[in-house]
Fold:
Amino acid sequence: MASLVLGAVVGLTVGEPAGKLKPLGDVLVRLLKMVVIPIVFLTLVMGLRQIQPSKLGRVGTQTVGAYLITTSIAIVFGLGVANVVDPGTGVSLPEGAEAMEKTPPGLSEVFLNIFPLNPIGAMAEGNVLQTIFFAIVFGIGLAFVQKESEEGSVVHEGTKTLFSVIEAAAEVMFKIVWGIMEYAVIGVFALMAWAFGTTGPDLIISFGKLILALTVAIAVHIGFTYLLIIVMALDRESPVEFLTGAKEAITTAFAIRSSSGTLPVTMSNAEDHLKIDEEIYSFTLPLGATINMDGTAMYQGVGAIFAANLMGVNLTIGQQFTVLATAVLASVGTAGVPGSGLIMLTLVLTQLGFPLEIIGFVAGIDPILDRLRTMNNVTGDLAVSTLIGKWNEAIDFESGVWSS
Ligand code: ASP
Structure:
């Protein structure tokens, strides 16, 4: 956290030349990307060793249900706060704003994209959703073969060895993440210095209201939905302890703008500090990094109001419902990578019939908005995971941060 603040101060003081520090930050981003796919695959397969097929169905339903509900609440907060703060009034669309080139995927494409054509290809391309799918079927297959094969047979021994190898490999990956976190002190500083050095304070001022609206909505969502409802009311635990246990994941998400990239850190926080069982977080967190994006979905609400104000029109309640439905569905199919929330906004604006030039307009400050969204996304994944842990007696509230 100190290097985050220090980086921002250096960036604002030094200005443009601070951009030279960026490669040091890029190293952090690359290191995290390096471990994402192996961690997702190894920990998911590991997790499936312990989980019973009947429990898998239950945990799956609970997780997806909780993710969808928190996402819907997030959008309502986004729309609510933006209606009050009214971002976009007093600003107008600049001439020649460039239209988005990337088109968001259609619904059937989003669905089909879960199934890999080639599992190795999916891993090589870093496709998290497809890797999750393959890891799940592989893990279940392995568990079944182990159960059905005869004790002492070659196949049975082989499945045991395979599970042991995968467990050891997963441990190795966590060790590597530990090392990466040591480097993060430098990486986070460099990324902040670069971001503030190149964009400067002007940007923050001119889009202040948009940033303010998103910040307030996120603060309300984290404070109300995660801390009050999930951690205090349902988990019956202290919100301070939860935030202490999640702090590395939260700051990393803010610095690198990617929930998938943050995944290794999120997982090690779940394991080491929040004491959630591996069988739960190895399933809920990779899935959350892909389908649960509360901050991103909320931004669709804020962005829609901003766009409407820019156009000088008011969004009807019906249109605001359209935003809700579109954003929930789109957030499921969008990857947790930097800037994907901006691509989602094209889907929402198209649905509302607004010009896509608006996307080009907000793209300039998206790096700032993206940090806030990603931080919210990752916090949501961890909060829901504690709840799923509690519901399935797979979290130890007596140790880790909870014992302090
Ligand atoms: N960067 C966000 C994430 O990785 C997605 C977004 O652009 O909102 O969670």
Q: What stands out?
A: The chain has a mean pLDDT of 84.
